[in-house]
Design brief:
about 280 residues; 10 strands; single chain; eight-stranded parallel sheet; alpha/beta; TIM Barrel; two-stranded antiparallel ribbon; about 40% helix
Length: about 280
């Protein structure tokens, strides 16, 4: 299956738009694991097992592994996901953005070394920073468009020319990903849950591509507003998937021995919120 097909299957099978972000911070682990970077795999694998039937995707953030020299644990983790949750696609959050042979190596890292189904990319250097990833025809890539951080305004919300009606940079990116860049139907967009009006604008400009939406939970994004702005369906069938990410609110729902039960409960509650908004969208 292609990545987009995987998303659709996971959404139907698990009844979910929720993506659990895997951002392991050993200092925040429960007491029996706390501070031990060698247990990153153990912590994340347990979270995966506790939530695998509740999610549309998992999203490991590579920096949280690399900072602790835990890339080998990330490899093991993705292999574990393949065994225990084969129906759930894996999005490697790497935000790569280089060109040429370097981009080819980053694509090989994401798709061959780690075995991810999709990766996040920065479009700042243009289409040649995205193209090497499209050679993997069954894989996907989410291009940064309107991110959840306040500093995104520095570039993303600026108009391309000081003329009324000229698109902003994020609108231009949305048009490229909906149109000429999306040669094989592999691309999606990253839009932050903290800006629901911009999510709706991106959806207008890119009506069919999947949206990866971080920022629900600890960052303050509203799950209901997010779904209403970005989710679209016809006759009960999703026409453009959204992947709504929550990380810390689920991973660290409890610092006690009940951390897995708490993580599952937090994931269930978020999934239920998203489902309710989905019906109304």
């Amino acid at each position: 299956m292609t990545f987009l097909e995987q998303l659709r299957v996971a959404e139907r099978q698990n009844g979910s738009l929720l993506c659990v972000g895997l951002d392991p911070e050993p200092a925040r682990f429960p007491a029996h694991l706390r501070g031990d970077a060698s247990r990153i795999y153990d912590f994340c694998a347990a979270i995966v097992d506790a939530t695998a039937d509740l999610v549309i995707a998992f999203k490991p953030q590579i920096a949280y592994f690399a900072a602790h020299r835990a890339e080998d644990q990330l490899e093991r983790l993705v292999a574990h996901m393949r065994r225990s949750a084969p129906q759930v696609p894996v999005i490697l959050d790497a935000k790569r953005g280089d060109i040429g042979s370097t981009a080819e190596q980053y694509a090989k890292e994401a798709f061959e070394r780690y075995g991810a189904d999709a990766v996040t990319l920065s479009p700042f250097m243009g289409f040649d920073s995205v193209q090497p990833y499209l050679k993997y025809h069954d894989k996907g890539a989410f291009v940064l468009c309107r991110t959840s951080n306040p500093g995104g305004d520095d570039f993303q919300n600026q108009r391309l020319a000081q003329v009324a009606g000229t698109p902003t940079l994020f609108e231009h990116i949305a048009g490229l990903v909906q149109g000429p860049w999306n040669q094989n139907g592999q691309l999606g967009l990253v839009v932050g849950a903290t800006y629901p009006a911009e999510i709706e604008r991106v959806r207008q400009l890119a009506p069919t591509v999947p949206l990866l939406i971080p920022g629900v939970g600890a960052q303050g994004g509203d799950a209901v507003a997010t779904v209403r702005a970005g989710y679209r369906s016809a006759a009960g069938v999703t026409t453009a998937p959204i992947v709504v990410n929550s990380s810390r609110a689920i991973l660290y729902a409890s610092s006690g021995e009940d951390y897995l039960q708490a993580a599952r409960a937090a994931a269930q509650a978020t999934r239920a919120q998203l489902q309710a908004a989905q019906i109304q969208a």
